[in-house]
C-alpha cells in the first residue's frame, strides 16, 4: 500500500507540484473513536420546519483555507489509510474475542481489465485489514445459473459476511436477477432495491449504504464542509453512484439537483452548486468554468485513458478538468487518489459492520 | 360525483370567473384506448448519452395557449372522471369474463377529520367504478397488533387486491412496521420500500407507482407538457408525495431539484423551474414571484383552513397562491379540483391493475 500511496503522490508532484496540501491542514479535530465522521443515517431525519426562520442563513464559513490560486486537494488515499487502520483494529478485536474475522466474497465475471483491477484492489485491501476474502472468477460466456449458484453458495456460507458482484456484468446476464439473489444481510454494496428504498425513504435506514456515496460524504465531512442547506449538484445518475449519492446528500439536507445527459445547459446548473459530485465517467466533462468560485468538487469519474508514458500503459482520468477546477474550487479531490480509495475503505467497513451484525459483536 | 364537480366549478366561478378554461382547449388528441397517457416505466429507461448533441436543445414550444393574463387551469376533476369512466369499463369487462371485480381494503385508524374525508372519497370512487371496497375502522388508541391483524387478514383475503393504510397513523403506532406488513402484491399506495427502491433504480419497475405522483405526471402529459430535459422543482420531500414525485420526474428525464425546509433561498431555486410541483402542505408558500413566467405549476398542497362561509366550515387551500400564480404560469392546477381527484383515480387504477395481475386477466 505504501507503494501505491507514493505513486499517487508522485502523480500529484509531477502534475501539480504546488498543490500537494494535506487535508490535515484543513481540519484536525476529527480524530474520534468512531471509524467515520458520518453519523448513523436515522439521526439525519430531523423534522422539516417550513418557517423562514428555519432556513440556514448563518452557515459558518467553512472554506477557511480557501486561496484564490489553489483549492485544497483532499488526500483520499491518506484518509482511507486512517480508516483502514481503525478497521484493522476492530478486526483484530473481533478475532481476539470470537476467533473469527469478517469475510468478503467477490464474484467476477469476464475479463474486463478495469473490473480485474478493482477486484484485485479490493482483495489487497482486505488483506491489509485482516478481512478474509474469496473470489469466484467466471468466464465471460458463463451461464446465468453459474453466477446465481456462486452467489447462493456465499449466501449460505457462514464465514462470508459480505458478497459483492463486480459490475458491469456481461450483457447476456440479467444484472437485476443476479443482484436480487444476494441475501440482504450480506449486500455490502447496498445495491439491493430494498436497501436503495430504505436509503430514499426518510425515517428508514438501509442495512448498507453504497460504498462510493458513503466515501464521498465522509470526504466532505472530514474536510469540514457544511452540507445542510447547500446546493449540491450530482452529475450522472447511475444506480451505483449518482442515484445513491443524490439520496445520501439529501439525507444530509442539501438541496440536490441531479444533472444527466438530458439536462439542458448542464454547465449553468452546475455553476450554481456549492458542492459538485461528478460521476458521469466522461473525462474532462466538468471544466473550470462549470465551477462556482469556492465550490467543493468531488470527482468520482475514473476513466482509463491509454498513455504509453505510464507504467501500465494507461492512466486514470476524472470527470473534472483538474488543472482548471483547482484554480476555482475551494476543495477538490484528485483522480486517482480521491474517491477511489475511499470506496474500497467503505466496502471494508460495510463488511466489518455486516460481520458484527451477523455475529452479534459490538 | 356530479355534485362534487359542480361544487368545484362553483368554487372557480366564484373566485376566478375568467379562469375556467378546460384542459381540452389545450390538447384533444389524447383519446387513446389506454387509460393513461403515462407510459410503462421501463420504457423510460433510455441510455444516457453524454455528447452535447444529445442535449435537448430543440424542445418544441408547448405553451401554445400561453396568455400573459391567465394560465390554463387544468381540470383534474374532469380528467379523473374520464379516467374513472375507462376504469369502470375495464371493471365491467372483468366482471363479465371472470365474475369477479377488483377489491380495495382501507385501514383507517383514529378520528382525524381529513383522513375520514379522504377515506370516504375513496370508497365513493370505488362505488362509481364498480370496485368493491371494505373499510376497517380502528380507534385512535388501538393496539399495533389490531392494525397488524387487519392488514394480515386483507393480505390473505382473495377478494382484496389492494390494501391501503390511511396515513398518518396515531403516533403510538410504528408506521414503518404497519406499511411493511402490507403484502407487496397488494401495495396499491406504492409505499413499500421495495416499490420505492424499484422506482428509484433505473431499469427496474415497481409493482405500483404512488398515486399522487402518478396523477401529477398524468396531468402534465395530458396538458402536453414536455418533461424531458426541463428543470423541475419539487417542493417538499415527504415519503408519500415529494420523494416519489422527484423520482418519477427524473424517470421522465427532467432535471429535478428537491426544495425542502433547509433549502437556502427556496424562492430563487423555484424561480428557475419550468415545472413546479409543490407538496409542502403550507398554504400560499409559493407566491407569484416564485414562478418563472410561463412555468407549469402543479399544486399538491391541500390544507383545510377554517372558513365559516363554506358549507363544511372549512375550505381546502393549496401551497400555491393561486391568484398570483395564475397570472405568471402557463398552466396551473387548482385546489381543490386539481391533483386531489387524480390521486383517487390513480388509486382505483392501481387497484384494477393489481386485480388484473393477481387474477391473470389481460
Biggest interface, CB < 8 A? A-B, 50 and 50 residues
Largest sheet of chain A, described in full?
A: 6 strands, parallel
What is the C-alpha radius of gyration of chain A, as a whole number of Å? 20 Å
Structural class of chain A: alpha/beta
- Strand arrangement in the largest pleated sheet of chain A: 1-11-8-7-5-6
User: Which regions of chain A contain 5 or more consecutive residues with pLDDT less than 50?
Assistant: 1-32, 51-67
Overall shape of chain A: globular
Mean pLDDT of chain A: 86
What is the fold named in CATH at topology level of the largest domain in chain A? Answer: Rossmann fold
Q: Name the CATH class of the largest domain in chain A.
A: Alpha Beta
Order of helices and strands of chain A: HEHEHEHEHHHEHEHEEEEHEH
Topology summary:
The structure is a homodimer of 362-residue chains.
Chain A lengths: L1 H14 L56 E2 L2 H23 L4 E7 L3 H17 L2 E7 L5 H13 L5 E4 L9 H7 L11 H8 L10 H12 L8 E5 L6 H10 L3 E5 L6 H6 L3 E4 L17 E4 L3 E4 L7 E4 L4 H4 L5 E2 L6 H20 L4
Parallel strand pairs in A: 1-11, 2-3, 2-4, 5-6, 5-7, 7-8, 8-11
Antiparallel strand pairs in A: 9-10
Describe this structure in words.
- Chains A, B: Residues 210-357 form the Tetrahydrofolate dehydrogenase/cyclohydrolase NAD(P)-binding domain.
- Chains A, B: InterPro entries: Aminoacid_DH-like_N_sf, NAD(P)-bd_dom_sf, THF_DH/CycHdrlase, THF_DH/CycHdrlase_cat_dom, THF_DH/CycHdrlase_CS, THF_DH/CycHdrlase_NAD-bd_dom.
- The structure is a homodimer of 362-residue chains.
- The first copy, chain A, has two domains: 14-74 and 206-341, Rossmann fold; 101-189, Leucine Dehydrogenase, chain A, domain 1 (Rossmann fold).
- Chain A is 37% helix and 13% strand.
- Chain A has eleven helices and eleven strands.
- The first copy, chain A, has a six-stranded parallel β-sheet with strand order 1-11-8-7-5-6. A three-stranded parallel β-sheet of chain A has the order 3-2-4, with helices on both faces. A two-stranded antiparallel sheet of chain A has the order 9-10.
- In chain A, strand 9 and strand 10 form a beta hairpin.
- Chain A is globular.
- The two termini of chain A are 29 Å apart.
